[in-house]
Each structure stands twice: as structure tokens, then as C-alpha cells.
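Review form for a predicted model. The reviewer records the input and the model, then writes brief findings.
Reviewer: anonymous (R2)
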Amino acid sequence: MESLNAFLQTPLGAIVILLLVVWSTAWKGVALWRAAGNKQLVWFICLLIFNTLGILEIIYIFGFSKPKK
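Model under review:
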């Protein structure tokens, strides 16, 4: 645990965290936009509450959202 803490305090650790935040935020934004546009309230709430580093968002976008016409 101390090695993880030490890694996160390095510049490389900060870059990794920043990249994870940007990755997750981008996927979450797209998924929430689609869920709102498709009027899928349950999906919108689930995507808003659960933070899965983009995994749930990617599953929703490619598996459950309606394709655009």
C-alpha cells in the first residue's frame, strides 16, 4: 500500500490519475447525453451514480443505446 501511495505522489502518478479522470469523464458525458436523448431515465440515473472508469458507459453506448438515425 505504501508503494502505491508513493507512486501516486510522483509526477507520473499524477499524470495517470489525470488521464483516468479525462477518460472516465469523456465516456460518461457521451453516455449521459445519449441516455437523455433517448429518454432512458433508468440508464441515465445508473450512469450518473456509478463510477466504473468508463466500463458501464461503453457497454451502454455500444450495447443498449438506440442508434442515431
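Findings: The two ends are 49 Å apart (CA to CA).
Further findings: Residues 20-69 form one domain.
Recommendation: see findings above.
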